[in-house]
């Protein structure tokens, strides 16, 4: 996984089944597209062998699209892969099972990220398993950067908190996964272009982290939003929170690229050449 020089904090978890989506389609596609643009040639070749003609942006929404699949996994198990409810951030390490190797052992998004990454690293994994793992991993890295996928169990990650978005009924989760992104009035390719960075210091800072850190970041942001207790959302709210949304999308794309490069390219080193040169 990505190198972490930050001391891993950790967690006590309260899990809650949920049918919510994260980032909406455009947000997930931005993260996938940004990651695709930063794959090393070796990593890009491996991704193409697994996905064929599909791009990371195209598969980024696949787990959400599969929610109506009648199979037991999608009906009863997949939902908990998308989120984590963090009650005690200082205990995260107790639930940071980086060696998880069985699908039925996944209890939350952090498990899901480790499981899918481990499948992709395993030379004995067949193509079907790798396709499942890569599609889900792209999506989960995106989910990990949406603040309310590390929110509170009591309100379903903000879904039960009613707000008004420019006078129209909404909820806190929806505002941050879709409405703030869509308010930019940009296609996912346009937004990706605006968020692309070659700043080495910024990239190194993003990569100097692990999936547990991403979720703790999201939890901290979510708690700050909870505490602000704002329910009338208009231009001032947009001005205040859109920069954070753009940062989270940028972080998600860069970190996904770094993770995939480390999985598929043995010459890719964290903070040194984990990303393709742009």
Automatic annotation (TrEMBL):
Q: Which Pfam families match?
A: S1-P1_nuclease (PF02265)
Question: Sorted alphabetically, which InterPro entries does this protein's record hold?
Answer: PLipase_C/P1_nuclease_dom_sf (IPR008947), S1/P1nuclease (IPR003154)
**GO MF entries:** endonuclease activity; hydrolase activity, acting on ester bonds; metal ion binding; nucleic acid binding
Keywords (A to Z) from UniProt: Disulfide bond, Endonuclease, Glycoprotein, Hydrolase, Metal-binding, Nuclease, Signal
The organism's place on the tree of life at top rank: Bacteria
Q: Does the keyword Signal apply?
A: yes
Cleaved signal peptide residues: 1-22
Q: Which SUPFAM superfamilies match?
A: Phospholipase C/P1 nuclease (SSF48537)
What protein name applies here? Answer: S1/P1 Nuclease
